[in-house]
Amino acid sequence: MPVHTDLNKLPLFHHAVITVGTFDGVHNGHKMLIRQIINEAKKRDGASILISFDPHPKSVIMPQGEQLRLLTTNDEKTALIEKEGVDHMVIAPFTKEFSKLSAMEYIEQFLVKRFHPAAIVLGYNHRFGHHRDGNIELLGKLSGQYQFDVIEIHKQLINDIEVSSTRIRLALTEGDVSTANSLLGRRYSFQGIVIKGDQRGRTIGFPTANLKLNNEQKLIPARGVYAIYAGSGNKLYKGMMNIGVRPTVNGTTETIEAHLFDFNQDIYGERLTIDCVCRIRNEIKFESIDRLKHQLELDKQSALLHL
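User: That's the sequence. What structure does it adopt?
Assistant: Structure tokens below.
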């Protein structure tokens, strides 16, 4: 799948069927849009084109000091979209200047001039342009003038919960990995490099891989203990993970520690991919190391029931 990042070097698309959005998470709702552009492009003997933005628009227009946490990095997003079978992906630079385009300027200067779409597929609540003034109704009014069809995708619900990146972020910040996974349509994952910790875990029979995130903007679930799969190279291991400050040993810095079951290798400096399965419990301060060790044995049994 070609990935285009320079708007001035786009190919001439024929019968383009486009969808536009941030696609953070590439969740089940996004996949509905993607399937629709692929099907519509086949009907028209055209190209399916997914248009995303970098950086995330909210990170440009949010007040100073606030930081948006992402469900997917650009590399993760691109890989997930390619897997869905899209013909072309465009990652458009999102700048302060771009954010000030009026809804009409956005349609005429960006969508029509750059892509000459035969059809535009959008979610029911898609907004665009300065102050989010543009919507699917405006596109419909202009469809005849610019000769494109407008196709609306309605709200997607899973277990009566609306599928959205915002809802998934909320679930993860509450530690509700199970709901996040249902809305995503896959296990939530992140990557990190294994670094040296204080090696306390090995003294009680639970050696851990301490992780430094590949991307500091990546959203990490709430503090607690989780059942996980950990990928190293081409191998996948069962395990459990603690996110927190380790209050039993009077820790103060938040760490991410993964204990892999039936594993005894030196992987310092290697990249681990963590797939979050479910949350087992909150982070707890225990009265003693022996109590902690006993609880970790119970946590392992709980994790294995979910893996």
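The chain has two domains: 3-162, 187-306.
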